[in-house]
Every structure is written in structure tokens, then in C-alpha cells.
Amino acid sequence: MTKLVKKAIFPVAGQGTRFLPATKAMPKEMLPVVDIPLIQYAVEEARDAGIEEFIFVTGRAKSAIEDHFDYSYELEHLLQEQGKTEILSTVRKVIPEAGRVSYTRQQKPLGLGHAVWCARYHIKNEPFAVLLADDLILAKPGCLKQMMATYDKVGGNLVAVEDVAKEHTDRYGILDVETDDGIIAKARGLVEKPKPADAPSTLSIIGRYILQPEIISYLDRQEKGAGGEIQLTDAIAHSIGRTPLHGQHFDGTRYDCGNQLGFLDANIAFSLERENMRDGVKEILKKYS
Ligand code: UTP
């Protein structure tokens, strides 16, 4: 029997240099797709998947994230007075139950593996999910919920995967695949950002993980990997052999909101999902076709 996954880590301590100057004083994870910040999509996806404890790994200039998931008495009072009850409930539904959200700080952005390690005392000895908010996924049910169903069957470490163009393997963690039925791939290895010629496959890891707590003991070593950063994928790769690793081909579309084009693409896709915007967006798009 696999142990239930009730905790999720949201690493939000990156510098977001590709989005400067927008991210000079504002966290990248607060960039809105339509009118919802990226981090809120990730938190809602986690909540829908059964997550009960939300652990944010924050850093410098990230306090807007804490404020977003807290009450704003002045604003709420104003909305109440103005009779804007619908928008008031939209604002309130974001806020996790008291005590279910915690923040820890990654003082230096030493890499994703280091960010996850910073949350080790919150994880204790339980399996946990990791969600990267800049990988925004349009899926029903949500990507993490799909992964939870797979995790029930396979246990171990599980990552969301998708095929990428061969020339882009050096941007991702790439699985060395043992078997693949098109839904679940079993991995015998994992390489971070391999050159196309060295890539064992084109199956790349995207920003959703379900991991066993043993990962932390490898991260304790603080070994630097690709790009001089402490890589989460190195810790996952290290545990293959003791903990099985599977990749989940999720049903949905991922938008890489860490770069401008992906972010624009997400805004178009998510606004087309809104019934009250669809026709207007199509009209706008016609102007540019
Ligand atoms: P990215 O690789 O997109 O890095 O991080 P970044 O710093 O956010 O953005 P750029 O490349 O400078 O534009 C992926 C996720 O991991 C988190 C980021 O906040 C983001 O959600 N992260 C990354 C950390 O929390 N700490 C780190 O040291 C690195």
C-alpha cells in the first residue's frame, strides 16, 4: 500500500530573470494568466488532487505570494460595502485553511533541488508532491490528480513527462526509458539537460513530481549538477534502483510560462476556455491572422 500524499511543495524562490523587468519587484509566480496568478493555478490543482498541506519555498521579493493567500480585511470590507459579493467569494476561496499553509525561505537560489531540501523539516518522513507554477497545465482532471491515480498503482517516485523536440533535450531532465505503454513509462535512468546527441530519449520531465522522502538524504550532500545548481533530478536519478521511477504521460496541455511566448500562448488558451471571453478573443486573433 502506498502512503497517501498530503503535502505539496511550491518552490517559488527563483529569480525569474527571463521575465525582467516585470519580475524586479514582483514574483514571477504572481504573473496572471487571464486574471489568476500562476501560483494560484498550481495551488488549486494541488487542492483538487487531495493535497492538504501547502509548503511554499520563497525568497527575496516574494512577499506578494504570502499576501495573496491571506485575508485582506480592507479589500474584503470594501467589496462587502459595495455589494460585490461574487468577486468577494472569488477572493476568499483562494485562502487555505489556517495552519495548512507554511512558508520557508531559500536564502540563496542554489537550484530546484536545494529549494526542495529547504522544505525538509515540513516534509518530515512523508511522500510529497512538488509543483512548479510556471509549468501551467490545462487538463481535466488536473495533472496532479491524474498522477495521484497512477501513484496509487505504481508508488515510488513519479514525474509528469511529455515528448519534446530532439533539439530541445538540453532544456529538460530526460528519462532513460525501460518500458513505455504510452501512459506510464518506467525509467531505468534520468539525465539532466543532455545535449541532443547524448539524450537517452525525448521524454522530458515537466514541473510535477510525487517523491519519496528518501530524496532528501541525497540532497543533504548539496552536490552541484548541471549549470552549477543543486538539481532535483540528480537526487531522483540517484534513488533509481532502490525506489522505482515512473513517468506519467498526462492528458492535457502544458504551457511553459517561464518564457514570454509560452506565457502568451497560455493567456490565449485559458481565455478561450472562458465562455464570456471566447468570442472576443477570437475576434482579436482574427486581426493578426
Ligand atoms: P526556473 O528554472 O524557471 O528559474 O525555475 P527561475 O529563476 O524561476 O527563472 P529564470 O530562469 O531566471 O527566468 C523553475 C522553478 O523552480 C523555482 C522557481 O521559482 C520556479 O518556480 N526555483 C528555481 C527555486 O525555487 N529555487 C531555485 O534556486 C531555482
Present the secondary structure layout.
Blueprint lengths: L6 E5 L20 E2 L2 E2 H11 L4 E6 L4 H6 L4 H9 L3 H8 L8 E5 L6 H6 L2 H4 L4 E4 L3 E4 L4 H12 L2 E7 L9 E8 L3 E9 L10 E9 L3 H5 L12 H8 L5 E5 L3 E4 L3 H13 L2 H14 L1
Parallel strand pairs: 1-4, 1-6, 4-5, 8-12
Antiparallel strand pairs: 2-3, 6-11, 7-13, 8-11, 9-10, 10-12
The chain binds uridine 5'-triphosphate.
Question: What characteristics describe this protein?
Answer:
binds uridine 5'-triphosphate; 11 helices; Spore Coat Polysaccharide Biosynthesis Protein SpsA, Chain A; nine-stranded mixed beta sheet; 289 residues
Q: How would you characterize the overall build of this protein?
A:
With 289 residues, the chain is α/β, with parallel strands linked by helices. The protein has one domain: Alpha-Beta Complex (Spore Coat Polysaccharide Biosynthesis Protein SpsA, Chain A), CATH 3.90.550.10. The protein is built from eleven helices and 13 strands. The strands form three sheets. It has a nine-stranded mixed sheet with strand order 5-4-1-6-11-8-12-10-9. A two-stranded antiparallel ribbon has the order 2-3. It has a two-stranded antiparallel sheet with strand order 7-13. The mean pLDDT is 94. Bound molecules: uridine 5'-triphosphate (UTP).
